[in-house]
Amino acid sequence: MISDYRDRNAPARKIVLAILGVVLALICLIAAAFFASWPVGTLAAILQPTHTPTPTPTAMPTYTNTPLPVPTFIPTPSPTPTVAEPQAHQWLERPFSEEQCNEPTRYYPYGSTGGGKYRIHRGADLPGPFGTPIFAAARGRVIVAGEDARVIYGERLGFYGQLVVIQLQEQYRGQKAYVLYGHLSQVHVHFLQVVEPGDLIGEVGMSGVAIGPHLHLEVRLGSNSYQNTRNPELWLRPLPGKGTLLGRLVDGEGQPISAHPLTVYRTEGEERRWQDATTYPATDVNPDDEWKENFALGDIPAGDYVVKTYVNGHLYTENFTVREGETTYVIIEVP
Questions:
Q1: Below-70 pLDDT ranges, the chain
Q2: How high is the pLDDT of residue 270?
Q3: What is the pLDDT, as a whole number, of residue 248?
Q4: What is the pLDDT of residue 269?
Q5: Do 246 and 148 share a structural domain?
Q6: Which of 126, 160, 162, 333 is positioned for an S-S bond with 208, CB 3.0–4.6 A?
């Protein structure tokens, strides 16, 4: 019976399949006609498969244990000290008129003993005839006028005899400065009198401890004291056409060599001996507060020179040039 049933339905299936084939063919034709009317680019875009990128995993930041910076200590720089140049203090005019010799003697300068004949000299001596007028070297006020019979101004009472001491109006780096005129024959000023440069203050004599008429000139700094002297030749204004030499003779450790002879030669043309000098003694006199010299010569004619000295059998020399109105500074080092 099953066999009969399949035979009866076979024509019907064929008809149905035929109809489906026709319908499918029509659908294909219609679709082909539809897509044929589109632009090629549009169709390609539709038919091109869309590429979806595979997401790349985002790396999570790895925590690193970074140490905190350690502060570096930077010291505050100390200010660089300003090295001050020695301040010029050639304030003093010459004490005599232009007709007189205004140069200090060379055989008994500041700090010397005159070749061992005298006590250590704390000033400068200017020789002059008895009664030669003496004039104030700078503006100031008279603080001593008369004899030193009751007050000690030097080594002892009566040491300077008739004297005048003037306190200068101008101070040197905050220190009072004084000028002493000793061994006078006459005093022409009075206590607390104000004087100007060129005012008559006295006359040359030989009172007190003196050998022959002359003016003993001293400069004192900080105090009107016999222990506070400075070399007057560093305070006197150089004469026309001349200058001042000062320097240091020191050992290998920079310490001054005391009471030692030196000789200055002029080197222009044939070398000629000009002047002998001696370094200061270790005590009793004072170098300049800034120059720290231990020898000095004033009123040297402008020109070229050499200073020579023998130490322990060896010759040491130093060339230098003197310029008008200026101070020349030299250092001689002995190893």
A1: 1-18, 20-87
A2: 83
A3: 98
A4: 83
A5: no
A6: 160
> What is the reported pTM?
0.74
Same domain, 182 and 227: yes
How far apart (Å, rounded) are the C-alpha atoms in residues 86 and 328? 12
Distance CA 187, CA 200 (A): 9
Residues 137 and 191 both lie in one domain: yes
Q: What is the pLDDT of residue 28?
A: 58
Other residues' Cβ atoms within 10 Å of the Cβ of residue 318? 16
- Residue position matching structure tokens 């690193």: 64
